[in-house]
Amino acid sequence: MSAERGVELWAPVRALGTRQQLAAIWMFLKRDLLLQTHFRVSYLTNLMETVSQLAIYGVIASLGQHVARVEQLTGGYVNFVISGLVLNTLLATALAGPYLGLMESFWNNRIEIIMASPLKLPWFVTGISVGKYVDALVRVAILLAGGTIFLGFVWPPATGLLGFLVVLVLALAATTGLGLAAAGMVYTLDARGGQDPVRFVVETIAGLVAGVYFPLQVLPAWMQWLGYLIPHTYAIDGMRRALFGSSSLPPLPLQSQLPLPPLLTDLIALTLYAAIALPLGWWTFKRGMALARSDGRLSRWL
Q: Which of 23, 74, 120, 147 is the most exposed place for a label (fewest CB within 10 A)?
């Protein structure tokens, strides 16, 4: 059976309304939350990773870390790094959510059962990912609360909220496209060992040159251009400019070469990235599912 034919076979047994599809998503979410919090000690220990991450950069800031590139930013380095950590937590979830959710269903032999149900494929992807976002929001709350209480994080004015939301939506759309492509690797490249090429490359670049922990401008020129390969760079820069003002940060090299406001440049880049990554990632994911269904590899057999 061809991959194309396999794609066509994903069809509901009977039509479900939006309310019923949402009810299915709620069931996925409750299941994930129960699994995450069943072993409370392990869950709390896992959350402590976020606390330790916050503490590390809090110590750096409290010891007088001098970062000339962010001196004008409200809150200085504390605001710079906490805002980067917050957005990167959400983007990392969009990138890893589909893959991790699919692998959990794979190892638990649940994919065939779900595919035999009336649940449509987009809702299935949402269901296996939604629990990861709840966990990410808990971590974001820890970062913001801890940063505010212990490190002096300065909350930005509400005037930049709309711009931030636009950046966030575009960034999540672009990163979700990469996440769907990563999940597609489960079957197209048999990447079932906990990592895949897409996430490995993106996470490596994001950790080094996306501007989460330090300004991109302090890096060599070739590393700065490497950061433009992923949406994280535009998202993190755009988020800071929307919330704290474009005058607070030096322009990126790409922004210096275009006769546009820096924030607008970020928005255009994210829009183009999302327009390409989201449909391409969705096609890759559907193709992987079709290949697995055609040769019986949807779940493990041993």
A: 23
